[in-house]
Amino acid sequence: MALPRSLGELRRSQFSEQRLQNRRVKDELRENLITRLRGNSGNGLFPGIVGYDDTVVPQIVNAILSRHNFILLGLRGQAKSRILRELTGLLDAQMPYIAGCEIHDNPYTPICRRCAELIGERGDETPIAYLAPEERYVEKLATPDVTIADLIGDIDPIKAARGGHDLASEYTVHYGLLPRANRGIFAINELPDLAGKIQVGLFNIMQEGDVQIKGYPVRLPLDLALVFSANPEDYTARGKIITPLKDRIGSEVRTHYPATLEEGIAITTQEAWEKRGHTTLVVPQFVREVIENIAFAAREDKKVDKRSGVSQRLPISCMENVISSAEQRALRNGEKVVVPRVGDIYAAMPAITGKLELEYEGEMRGADNIARELIRTAVAKTFDRYFNGANMQQIVQWFDLGGEIKLADTAAASAVFETLKSIQGLHEKLTTLGIKTRDIVEEQVAAAEFVLEGLYAHKRIGRSEERVFTAGEKQPRPRTESELNPDRPFRGGRRSFN
Questions:
Q1: Structural domains for the chain
Q2: Does 220 have pLDDT greater than 90?
Q3: Looking at per-residue confidence, does 386 or 161 come out higher?
Q4: I want to staple 255 with a disulfide (CB 3.0 to 4.6 A). Which of 74, 97, 242, 379 is the partner?
């Protein structure tokens, strides 16, 4: 069905005057949300957003149903911007406006002088254009250099000169982002970074619903849904949201990191670039768990700044680097299947260190050392999920008796597989990881390396920086009572246990 292209056709179409004249953006969002909610629980309102169905999403739904302007508060990497952009899914498929209007005027209730005069001249022949939902979303990243002119507008002397208009004419106004977002959604990211005097400029549009252009006795009753995002630490770090503006924001919604390992893996699998095209990729589940556990371990580590947070981008970038490391090995060795190993996670440290803000103690240790500790912790935690309570004595004993094996990151899986066969009891443990003897060699090698890395993480065996696995360091046998009981007060004399 063709869309109406003139005001007369519009009056006779589904875009009736009664429907558009008094229906504001917040009403539109509310009505479309109600339609979505009927018949289901509201799941799927924000495609691709994982882990918020029972926490963040219900609060956003309440804010929209209440016709509130709202703010998302959360640490970095919690999908705040993505949620705001997904709000366009609640807008109508097409929105008619007077063609050529910079502020997308409502054909039935124009607010700018140019559109009012155009309708007066052409009447039902006034041309009509349409906006898609994504065109009705305007986003601004708040920075200290943003001005009132950027947001609201200012005088444009060049317009006045070219059009022969007096500077007091509305035709000389250069509209800012807020007027240009009229009849849509206007989002400001990192709101605390906006200078306080600029935040004051938002008061009128939020409470009275209009703006005043500098130097002009012009009032524009704009139709907007205002949404914001901010890091809660920014209230005291880089800047703050001034109290009167906070008071005018209807709802404050707090976001969070994934609550469970499964949610984190789902997000990383969804967002990471895994489909490389030219090769077959198999990412073992235990590798996914180790990568995700790195982020969970970092969020709990005292040496990592919790105020800054550990972004979900860390496991996403790490996964991409891990796959690339495995891909490089496969290409060099002519392997047809790419299977990441734990060694590839260590090779992906550049994707980890840059995403950690360290406390003083962490800075003293160094980002590389902290990253290695986090990987080792993640391996140990994942190892326990599969082998908690399992008897690994036969494997440990093989190393205690002088066994030694090198698992270079660049070594071909076939060569490593032959070496691993000599470790007694190792292959029997791989069934716990879902690996069978008929599986491809690359998967078996990845699983075997994970078992050895798990034993190393628990200090059952040793490993050098060159990835040579050996027997673990044995604690020296105590020779005196003070060595055996270091916390017991020394009462003199030396008792030997020999």
A1: 7-254 (3.40.50.300), 261-471 (no CATH)
A2: no
A3: 386
A4: 74
